[in-house]
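Why do we bother with holo predictions? Because pocket geometry can differ from the apo form. Keep that in mind while you read this record for threonylcarbamoyladenylate.
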Amino acid sequence: MQTLVLKPNENNIKLACELLNNSQVVSLPTETVYGLFANALNHIACEGIFKAKDRPMDNPLIVHISDYDMLDRVAKNISEDAKKLMDAFWPGAITLILEKQDEIPNAVSAGLNTVGVRMPSNPVALEVIKKSNLPLAGPSANRSGRPSPTNSEYVFKDLQGRIPLILDGGDSSIGVESTVISLVDDIIIYRPGFVTKSDIEEVLGKSVKMSDGIYEELSEDKIALSPGLKHKHYAPKAEITIVNASFKDIHELALKEKATILCFDEYLKETEVWAIGYGSEKNSSEQAVKLFTSLRKLDEIGAKKVFAMMPNLDGVGLAVYNRLLRAAAFRVINI
Ligand code: TXA
Ligand code: MG
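The structure, written out:
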């Protein structure tokens, strides 16, 4: 199959809509990361997503909508708290886990009775959802286990020959995936993202819980609720270890072990070893924008062993740490 990479003009948006209405899989830009989309109400179309990315079938998909009429086609019994979060953050980078409509196929929900729903803010994604008149199921458009793609080139590298079309909407402005929060029974954040715990608590006027799997590897009995947490994620080919230490100590270690450093941009000029920057030490949003690109650059320079500087965990920094921790297969050392 030939994979076209096209600008999102009127004709190409029409082409994307036609493909989606014919049960095909298409990659579109979103403000978080690029997604791989198919008709969320069609089991066979959704199976195409799993095939294209080699994704395990037990990991459910997020359904993307463009308006509130579409919401009723995918979810039901929506709580007041859920409505408050939609009002505050949609369109935007937060996915709400809600009770699913019966029409949502098993390929989307992975057998759960819930569905993750998000209204993205990227205008290309919104327009394709609206014009195709389909709720679109979509994971990040990477091969399973790889870093999520933040531009069309990385989607092409991972999925070339496996999908017919990628719409190129430039770089994703946020760079890490949406915050995932369950509003079925308890309110629990399953995945930290651009919308932070304190943003959410401010809107709801109460405290919310964080899932155990955010800071450490989840035990077998806890993975059933958020299957995505158990899978290996975001990993470059290199072996990454997060090092909680000063740049000086990390640099010494890297020199001794002939390793590459993944550091804040401020330190790039100080190193005598290979180093890739992932944003300013003081700017977590910039780290979010750059992290996945920097992980892919480690592969491009052929890094084998990598020591990564520990991000600050405040605000969006928690999302950065959460992704880096998975890329490092939970290896963290303190010096
Ligand atoms: O920003 C994003 O969320 C991007 C863009 C494309 O929208 N999408 C994305 O999808 O990151 P994906 O499939 O890579 O991650 C979705 C996460 C997974 O960890 C999955 O387990 C969880 O959301 N999830 C989806 N539906 C769920 C459900 N019903 N219950 C619990 N977790 C769910
Ligand atoms: Mg993903």
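Residues 30, 32-33, 35, 59-62, 95, 97, 109, 112, 114-116, 118, 138-140, 177-178, 180, 190-191, 226-228 surround threonylcarbamoyladenylate (ligand 1) (CB under 6 Å).
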